[in-house]
Amino acid sequence: MVRLLTKENVTELLNMPDALAYVEEAYKQLTLGNAIVPQRIGITDPAPGLTLIMPGIIGGEMNALATKIVSVYKQNPEKYNMPTVLAKIMVQDINTGDIVGIMDGSLITAMRTGAATGVSVKYLARKNSTSLGIYSAGVQARKQVSAVYWGLNEKLERCKVYDLKKYVAEDFKKEIEEELGIDVEIANSGDDLLFGTDIIVAATTSTIPLFSGDRVAEGTHISSIGAHAPDARELDSTIIKRASLLTAGLKEACLSEAGDYIIPINEGIIAEDNIFSIGEIIIGNKQGRTSDSEITVFKSVGISAQDVAVGKLVYDRAIKEGIGQEIDF
Amino acid sequence: MVRLLTKENVTELLNMPDALAYVEEAYKQLTLGNAIVPQRIGITDPAPGLTLIMPGIIGGEMNALATKIVSVYKQNPEKYNMPTVLAKIMVQDINTGDIVGIMDGSLITAMRTGAATGVSVKYLARKNSTSLGIYSAGVQARKQVSAVYWGLNEKLERCKVYDLKKYVAEDFKKEIEEELGIDVEIANSGDDLLFGTDIIVAATTSTIPLFSGDRVAEGTHISSIGAHAPDARELDSTIIKRASLLTAGLKEACLSEAGDYIIPINEGIIAEDNIFSIGEIIIGNKQGRTSDSEITVFKSVGISAQDVAVGKLVYDRAIKEGIGQEIDF
User: Fold this and answer.
1) Secondary structure element (H or E) that encloses residue B51, with its range
2) What are phi and psi of B124, to 5 degrees?
3) pLDDT of the residue at B139
4) Span A307-324, mean pLDDT?
5) Which residue of A has its CA nearest to B51?
6) B207 burial via Cβ count (<10 Å: 0-12, 13-18, 19+)
7) What range does the domain containing B122 cover?
8) Are residues A132 and A243 in the same domain?
9) Chain A partners within 8 Å of B97 (Cβ)
10) Is A168 in the same domain as A285?
11) Among this protein's residues, is A122 annotated catalytic?
12) Are B63 and B94 in contact (CB under 8 A)?
């Protein structure tokens, strides 16, 4: 029997605090060597878009085995009135190999990407943080705010948002104020975000740095989850140089995909040894923030373990609550 | 909408002549550079079995994009009363990336593996071939016989089968005689198969050669679809040396996985240049059999393009014939 879960089912079953806990556990098991994230497979030519095949396995107590198939087709909205990004997650029973759950993966992708930032906030932001500045007001960004809110144990009070599309920012403001009960201010420029914010999140499609690193206040925690190509970045070399702690969802993944780290490494500004997987901090191998004045950075390019963990969470809950359709095929 | 197809649906929709045509087309498009078979991903630890993730894309007129997730868990029968091999194929719309079909992949795996042999028989066996000797009487072997039958344009008259399990061979005899209307003889030894057979098929789980290559008659065509590890093989170095034409489903795949070729290469008996993808013969780049006395060999380790092609065939036919369940998720 295969449990099929629509986007609506997933929405009903998944909340950010749980996503955060599961992504944290995934990072922990990765560092402990109980999880494996194979290099993902990308397929394009001769298709007009990109498909990524992202399998992964997490042992420990989670015992999760799943594969996400996610496609990014830029022509979809215009040509077919369909979303650019489509995703499904196939969950296997780790004991038999059988595919037991298949679910829409779009919300899970947004939630697990948010959760990555949430985990970094939990471990690296100043404990007295109350304000966030976020680049982009898109769907992804909204889950980022929610994740920061829960990563700070609901202590987030204010959020400044900057988006080139003003109407998207206004929609964001309405949604976030209603959802989280925090004040949202629409910034007039990207630089605006840098003042009076304890945490900065970059969740854009930009391939060049969003702000000048020398304008960032001491004590800030920064999370970048956009840009994921060796020659693309959201953060400039200055902020990487100023930061006293550079972390990654998974160090190896960032070293092969994140220009935010690859470019300053190639410039000789930092070395690979300066970067730590967040799991190292979660398990206590590496100390996190040590003062209120230091700048901390987290970079995530997205790894299958996040999808595998959250997919398992959703599947288990669907079984428990009897949600979704069960089909024998 | 996603079309879900059970094993029964797939059985209803798929026949060997079509599987053969689609696998042939996949090989052709691979050689023409219109298809891509990424290195498959294998996941085991910490699971008690192996999962293979096999995506692929085929352009040309087929326009197929799909991923097979296949698991091999040896404990399944004993521990869970479930099959060792479980598989599902996710078919995407190549134009939008959307997953539009999900189907049971076990029959497709057997059929496409058979079809590979069938294509080799079509191009490489003597035109006057009428007899087959097959090692193993298992599920896989039965599809091999069917494929040889269709690869020979229904001219197959006799089949000798050898299996260590006599009752499996007897069951095989009953099934094949009924299905194809040919005579099946149960051989008493592996060597028995070598006499009076125009075509030899090896479809076993053996990791060592099944027969001595010097006992094979001139003019024989041999297909080996078992053994798929660099140190495992069904064919010995003698037969590889005697053969005048060595072919592969996909040369690159066999050079990294098939001991049947890797071992004799390492022994200096043949060189990589002596091996040709069957697609080269299909498109006419390389001549096939040139005389009735030469020995030809085909080796296949199984590649995603076979699953992608046959998966697309089954999906298209399901849509056309209104078979399967359509679910929006």
Assistant:
1) strand B50-58
2) -120, -25
3) 87
4) 98
5) A97
6) middle
7) 114-303
8) yes
9) 47, 49-51, 71-73, 76, 86
10) yes
11) no
12) yes
Enter the pTM of the model: 0.94
**Cα dihedral A213, A219, A223, A227 in deg (nearest 10):** 10
Categorize the per-residue pLDDT at B163 as very low, low, confident or very high, splitting at 50, 70 and 90: very high
Residues B176 and B255 in one domain: yes
Question: Is residue B73 a contact partner of residue A96, using CB atoms and an 8 Å limit?
Answer: yes
Give A281→chain B minimum CA distance, Å: 23
Cα B329 to chain centroid distance, Å, stands at 33
Nearest to B4 by CA among B104, B152, B121: B104
Q: Is residue B73 domain-shared with residue B126, that is, in the same domain?
A: no
Angle at A132 between CA A126 and CA A138, to 5 degrees: 140
Q: What's chain A's Rg over C-alpha atoms? A: 19
Helices (H), B33-134: 106-124
CATH number of domain containing A155: 3.40.50.720
Copy the structure tokens of residue A67.
Answer: 């594969």
Q: What is the mean pLDDT of the segment spanning B283-310?
A: 97
Q: How far is A144 from chain B (nearest CA, A)?
A: 25
Q: What is the pLDDT of residue A139?
A: 87
Mean pLDDT of chain A: 97
State whether A64 and A92 are in the same domain: yes
Residue B64 phi, psi (nearest 5): -115, 135
Do B103 and B248 lie in one domain? The reply is: no
Domain count, chain A: 2
Chain A contact set for B1 (CB, 8 A): none
Query: Quick check: helix, strand or coil at residue B3?
Result: strand
Q: Name the average pLDDT for chain B.
A: 97
Distance CA B22, CA B309 (A): 6
CB pairs under 8 A between A and B: 149
Q: Hey, is B75 helix, strand or coil?
A: coil
Q: What is the mean pLDDT of residues A117-128?
A: 98
Does position B329 have pLDDT exceeding 90, yes or no?
A: no
Chain A residue numbers with beta carbons less than 8 Å from the beta carbon of B62 are none
Residue of A234, A254, A233, A231 lying closest to A135 (CA atoms)? A234
The predicted model gives B10-21 an average pLDDT of 98
Q: Residue A329 — pLDDT band, cuts 50, 70, 90?
A: confident
> Are A69 and B99 in contact (CB < 8 Å)?
yes
Determine the pLDDT at residue B273.
98
Dist CA B157 CA B180 (whole Å): 9
Q: Are residues B156 and B254 in the same domain?
A: yes
Q: Tell me which chain B residues have a C-beta less than 8 angstroms from the C-beta of A104.
A: 329
Q: What angle do CA B36, B38, B41 make, to 5 degrees?
A: 155
Among B50, B88, B96, beta carbon nearest to A76: B96
Judge if ipTM > 0.90.
yes
Distance CA B311, CA B227 (A): 24
Q: How confident is the model at residue B242 (pLDDT cuts 50, 70, 90)?
A: very high
What percent of chain B clears pLDDT 90, i.e. is strictly above it? 97
The CATH number covering residue B36 comes to: 3.30.1780.10
User: Is A82 in contact with B71 (Cβ distance < 8 A)?
Assistant: no
Task: Give φ, ψ of B287 to 5 degrees.
Answer: -75, 145
Selected residue of B102, B307, B325, B328 to mutate for chain A interface (largest A Cβ count, 10 A): B102
Together in a domain, A223 and A240: yes
